[in-house]
Amino acid sequence: MSFSGIGYDCHRLVPGRRLVIGGVEIPHELGLDGHSDADVLTHAVIDALLGAAGLGDIGEHFPDTDERYRDADSLELLETALTSVIAAGLEVDNVDCTLIMEAPRLGPYRQEIREQLARALNLPATRVNVKATTGERIGFVGRGEGVAALAVASVSAR
Predict the structure, then answer these.
(1) Which of the residues 45, 62, 86, 128 has the least number of beta carbons within 10 Å of its own beta carbon?
(2) In the chain, what are the domains?
């Protein structure tokens, strides 16, 4: 039997922060604002994974009111979430995610992001898909004010 979950996250772009997407630091004049490293793509993957396993959401597991998670590495949070999924008797089948961002372009970093997420999920990179699109200059993403991400994860009983 298999189960699917959906994840979504968004963060504002601000000066003075690093831009971390899928565990990869991308050179840019703006970074993502958040309690942890604000890795919007990894956060969406975490929520999709937890949702597929029926284990709540990222805010329940890693609340932004807990100082232990200040500037936390989101790939480490993903690894912790994976441990919970495995403890529930499930394994990850695949993950598909989409980043929505005006700039910078994700193309040069896509494969490294895919590999980082796959490593954290203990999956071959062929079972982790990373796509990117823009906001077509519409809304907060289109105006370059923030970044959003969507993810779908499938898990099955071991």
Answers:
(1) 86
(2) 2-157 (3.30.1330.50)
Radius of gyration of the CA atoms of the chain, in A: 15
How far apart are the C-alpha atoms of 55 and 155, rounded to whole Å?
A: 12
Length of the chain: 158
CA–CA gap between residue 149 and residue 156 (Å, rounded)? 24
Amino acid making up residue 28? H
The owner of tokens 């597929």 is: 52
pTM for this model (two decimals)? 0.97
Question: Residue 62 carries which DSSP code?
Answer: S
d(CA 97, CA 6): 10
Task: Find where tokens 């077509």 sit.
Answer: 136
